[in-house]
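ligand=flavin-adenine dinucleotide
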Amino acid sequence: MALKRRDLLSAGVSAAAVAANLASPRMADAQVLQVPAVWDRTADVVVIGSGASGMPAAIVAREAGSSVILLEGEKHIGGHGICSGGNVPLGGGTSRQKKYGIEDSPDLLFRDLTDWSVVEPNGFPDYRYNDREVIRAFADNSAPTFEWLVAHGVVFVDKAPDGQGGTAVGNSVPREHHAAVMGWPMVQTGKPADPSVQATMSSGNGLMRPLEVSAKKAGVAILLEHRMTALYRQSPNSGRILGVAVDNKGKKVNIRARKAVVIATGGSSTNVNFRRMFDPRLTEEYCGVAGQPYSDQDGYGEIAAMAVGASLWGLYNQTGEFGDPLTKPGTVGSQYGYRNLQWMPGSPVFDKVRASGLKVADWQNLILVNMLGKRFYDETAPQYTSNDYNSIRPYRQGSYLNAKNVKYDPSNFLNAALAGIGDGRNGGGPIWAIFDADAVAREKWIPNPPNVDIAAGFFFTADTLAELARKIVMKYQRVPMPADVFEQTVARYNSFVDAGKDDDFGKPKPLYKIATPPFYAAWATPVIHDTRAGLRINAKCQVMDMNGHVIAGLYSCGESAGGFSEHGLARATCQGRIAGTNATAERRQA
Ligand SMILES: Cc1cc2nc3c(=O)[nH]c(=O)nc-3n(C[C@H](O)[C@H](O)[C@H](O)COP(=O)(O)OP(=O)(O)OC[C@H]3O[C@@H](n4cnc5c(N)ncnc54)[C@H](O)[C@@H]3O)c2cc1C
């Protein structure tokens, strides 16, 4: 329905300076927008993003009687939710917890997720900076979200909840439920899982595909390749949110929301400028973000909301060194090396992925060097922490003994990798896994496409070490690798193998020399993953401005929302339901 002229008297600029500062090509046209005189489409509730939070928000709003448009920027639904491991840490007394005799309650869940005394082995606190209001809402809605998912077709592996996959430290009771992949084709491979494991294998495909079916059945209008570029607000810093500007394959579409807009766009990890607000080290070379290239986490939900006055929230949760915001790669030789996601030929996005990568079974089989060809750390060392709910034993609710009893563990591969080469520049630059033909045989790798990405410069081979160093030319290698330094690095490491001792970085008993040609250099640069800080929301998932006031008609949930440090799916699905419930309850604007 078109707005009348008089409705627009107060309409003005909506997306302004913030967007301009953070602009990238997609956002370039969204700096100053007048509210349109005529809308191309209208719905009661417009949800942006079809991932783990947006899909529940859309279903809830539609089932409550609102007309709903669900916008998805990619060609396919699901976002990181469908790429995920499907491990969903919902608690507070789910039917599955009860079935297996686990006593939990919303109060216990709330206390755990706000327990100041829980710290990781590197000393960083997981939950100290969680927003109490946001966590209370999660704790009260967590168990009902589990039942809601089941009622909407999600099958959970029939076993006792545990702590495997994503649950952080300090849970009083096990809460991790696992969505079974069932017969859904997986985005990772393009094929269903083997029938023998379909009911027992946890996967985000088993979470998102049933929700997609439910959304379509309920009558949610899902518009693929519709990327939100800006929000329309009555005036720049006051009034309701009226709708969204969308890019549909180059065509601009304006969509009016008569009740509310829900931002469910995921996090900000692929947006270099945005992520560097939290950590200046995270420059362009960290280009293998987990969940990419299936969907981008480009921060546009946050950027568009900030442009109309929204505040960010809980920023410590993004910079603290715990959990999965940054990870050590699990595969080498391809751009996308997240350890729990290996893209295979047959995946609908394999044309963008280009190579599966070589999965590293034993980090003794290689050394890691920086741009200058120098080792920087023990290759077998872990990333920040173990991120396991059982890490603190015994766990005492609210007790300083939790912190006191944690054994300090300084092993931290990531900070060394991001330290760089001392050239005064931000960012650690590429990290290369170096190995020889014997390592290839031990790992049973096939170092050819489509396993490795030679064409785009993420994998190199040569018959001598000097030649290999000279061949490493690609856009993120900002200095040539000095062949003599690289040769010395390998020679010194080989001497450590002879001596059975790594004098430089203490790698436990180095086992294998790098001596048999051909030699290989494979991309092994750290991977960016979770976003744990985003828009300021209240218990209803309403977005708040810099003065602490609600922005009428604007909601956010999942990784685009802030105040909640926990790995993804539980908070995303739960907040999606909360946002959808409150968005649909808004008064419909004439
Ligand atoms: C490989 C992998 C494994 C994981 N495993 C687990 C796990 O086992 N357990 C767990 O708890 N968490 C896991 N996570 C994290 C979890 O998947 C995410 O936290 C969760 O999906 C976040 O939900 P979301 O709705 O905020 O974002 P997403 O699920 O990413 O959905 C966001 C959607 O918004 C779309 N979008 C973005 N911008 C726009 C725009 N401007 N216009 C229109 N659409 C837009 C995106 O394309 C995407 O489809 C994993 C993540 C990855 C990548």
